[in-house]
């Protein structure tokens, strides 16, 4: 009789233990999200001055008065709601400058969306003005389908889109009109 009670108690304890073991689940990520709204950024930075270096050489300087980090989203991004000022340096240390009223950078696609009074000035004094400009960081490619003004020297080219590599070696203004100097 004592053996039967011990056996029954052992079986009950085993069943409860196995049930508890299989009912547990990994919800660590959910616990981390407690107190964090998915609509709120996980990080806020005020007055940033970020210097990006590679092999001891400054490649870019990013200045912004506010940065919001939404890395907690399924499609993470970083937002600059008060605009950016970006200096980019090439291999010869020539500086190009990008200014925009608003910017958003998507981590998964490495796409940078610049909006509102976008101005891109190269060290060659070429200047691009646009209301919106995209930059694909992987392909080092600039593009937009919005109206643009592209100034090269004395030429002022208006268009309804723009497509170029980051060095402007094959810049193309789409649906062109404006003043263009032609050598005869």
TrEMBL record:
UniProt GO molecular function: lipopolysaccharide transmembrane transporter activity
Domain of life of the source: Bacteria
Transmembrane segments: none
Any Gene Ontology CC annotation: plasma membrane
InterPro entries assigned: LipoPS_assembly_LptC-rel (IPR010664), LptC (IPR026265)
Protein name: LPS export ABC transporter periplasmic protein LptC
Gene that this polypeptide is encoded by: lptC
């Amino acid at each position: 009789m004592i053996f039967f009670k011990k056996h029954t108690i052992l079986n009950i304890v085993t069943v409860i233990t196995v049930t508890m073991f299989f009912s547990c689940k990994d919800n660590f990520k959910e616990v981390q999200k407690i107190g964090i709204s998915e609509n709120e950024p996980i990080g806020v930075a005020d007055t940033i001055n970020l210097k990006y270096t590679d092999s001891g050489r400054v490649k870019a300087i990013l200045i912004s008065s506010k940065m919001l980090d939404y890395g907690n989203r399924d499609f993470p991004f970083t937002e600059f709601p008060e605009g950016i000022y970006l200096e980019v340096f090439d291999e010869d240390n020539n500086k190009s400058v990008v200014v925009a009223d608003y910017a958003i950078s998507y981590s998964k696609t490495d796409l940078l969306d610049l909006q509102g009074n976008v101005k891109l000035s190269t060290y060659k004094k070429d200047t691009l003005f646009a209301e919106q400009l995209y930059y694909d960081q992987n392909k080092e490619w600039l593009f937009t389908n919005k109206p643009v003004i592209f100034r090269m020297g004395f030429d002022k080219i208006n268009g309804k889109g723009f497509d170029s590599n980051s060095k402007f070696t094959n810049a193309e203004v789409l649906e062109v009109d404006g003043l263009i100097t032609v050598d005869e």
